[in-house]
User: Which sequence fits this backbone?
């Protein structure tokens, strides 16, 4: 629910992509450019997980590169999301059937 006076954020790069290909990129107003990290036959690297976390924080914060004033908060959010993503992927992998 959006409170009075607040606008829903827009993502211009997603709108351009969606205009070119209406079936691409937008789900509930969020760009789907973050890489899927869970695959049946390969394990995501720590660098891939961190890159996805950084992309998420960029989308949420609106910063491509934070200013010096915001860098600590930005990097802290990247760290937290990286850790949460790693925990999630480990938990999912533990519950998947093992193929031999």
Assistant:
């Amino acid at each position: 629910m959006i409170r009075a006076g607040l606008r829903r954020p827009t993502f211009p790069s997603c709108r351009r992509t969606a205009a070119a290909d209406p079936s691409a990129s937008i789900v509930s107003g969020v760009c789907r450019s973050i890489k899927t990290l869970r695959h049946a036959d390969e394990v995501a690297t720590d660098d891939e997980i961190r890159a996805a976390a950084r992309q998420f924080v960029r989308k949420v914060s609106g910063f491509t590169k934070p200013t010096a004033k915001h860098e600590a908060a930005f990097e802290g959010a990247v760290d937290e999301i990286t850790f949460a993503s790693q925990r999630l992927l480990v938990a999912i992998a533990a519950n998947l059937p093992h193929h031999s």
Notes: Helices lie at 12-20, 46-61, 71-94. The chain has a mean pLDDT of 74. Strands lie at 26-27, 30-31.
